[in-house]
Design brief:
By secondary structure, the protein is α/β, with parallel strands linked by helices. Helices cover 42% and strands 11% of the residues. It holds the Pfam family adh_short_C2.
């Protein structure tokens, strides 16, 4: 079902913003709620897209839906891609470039998450999240860098060095949990801290070639699988802890993405754009009464209740 424009981006953006030069976005985790909204907004504004994911059926279904937001839009859905496998990503990036004419923007959005205290968190579980988030982000950058460099070079040829124009840009999707430390999220805190550091390194090394590398760190976003799992007990209580007084929306993240990929964001590089309504400043925690701090860790039971089942969330 095609969403209405105001549900996934603000009305301030100019139609055709990314269509004049046939821009192309490549997105890992593109079938997820947040990443698909980011891609949806870019496609509506003129870009073509390639989303990749592990599920063939789901990825192709979402790609077809995304293509419906604009007449003539081209959206590839490539399934059976594991971000932990560099060869799989390189093949997908090559297919994207061959069928759509290149890659101008990249969103590294594949992620894993679940609630677990350290004493119940196995080494394999910890490693799994780091592999998806950190290695997956690195592989995404590694597989797409040649195309991003080509896009940035084209911008320089057309526009000179000031401004670079739009193209040759990568966004890593991170989080805010590691800023203050979050109970039951040691694996995610470690992974997202590494993703932030990776984005900074890409900025430093690839910036001279015309690339920009930035991070978007969402707070709790309403109606997503991750928020339903991590904030399942009392979403209103969570919203009350956020200075802006509400949970975020996918539109908030899509708007931030459009800004960073547009010409307006051409001089923003190596930055972390937190989109959470100021929530991390209030030290809000995601788990509710069943894992209230510090009572949960002092209890002999240490059993998590009121949280949806499942150990992994692919955002």
């Amino acid at each position: 079902m095609v969403s209405r424009r105001h549900e996934y981006m603000s009305n301030v953006w100019r139609d055709g913003l990314f269509g004049e030069e046939g821009r192309v976005v490549f997105c890992t985790g593109g079938a997820g709620t947040i990443c698909s909204a980011q891609v949806r907004a870019l496609v509506y504004l003129g870009a073509n897209a390639c989303i990749v994911g592990r599920s063939v059926e789901k990825t192709q279904k979402i790609a077809k839906d995304l293509a419906g937001v604009r007449n003539g839009a081209k959206v590839l859905g490539i399934g059976a891609v594991d971000v932990r496998d560099i060869q799989s990503l390189e093949k997908a990036a090559q297919q994207c470039a061959e069928e759509l004419g290149g890659i101008d923007y990249v969103i590294a959005g594949a992620a894993g998450n679940f609630l677990a205290p350290i004493h119940n968190l196995s080494t394999n579980a910890f490693k799994s999240v780091l592999d998806i988030d950190v290695l997956g982000s690195y592989n995404t950058a590694k597989a797409t860098l040649p195309y991003l460099i080509a896009s940035a070079s084209k911008n320089r040829e057309q526009n000179g060095t000031e401004p670079f124009g739009a193209g040759g840009r990568i966004i890593f999707v991170s989080a805010t949990m590691h800023y203050i430390g979050t109970p039951l999220q040691s694996h995610v805190c470690a992974a997202k801290a590494a993703v932030d550091a990776l984005a900074h390194s890409v900025c430093i090394e690839q910036g001279p070639l015309g690339l920009t590398s930035n991070v978007i760190s969402p707070g709790p976003i309403a109606d997503t699988e991750g928020t339903s799992r991590l904030f399942s007990e009392n979403k209103q209580a969570t919203a009350n802890q956020i200075p802006s007084g509400r949970l975020g929306t996918v539109r908030d993240i899509a708007d931030a993405t459009i800004y960073l990929f547009s010409e307006a964001g051409s001089y923003v590089n190596g930055e972390i754009l937190v989109v959470d309504g100021g929530g991390w400043h209030t030290n809000f925690q995601p788990a509710g009464e069943s894992v209230a701090y510090p009572d949960f860790f002092l209890s002999s039971e240490k059993r998590i209740t009121g949280v949806k089942d499942g150990r992994r969330s692919r955002l």
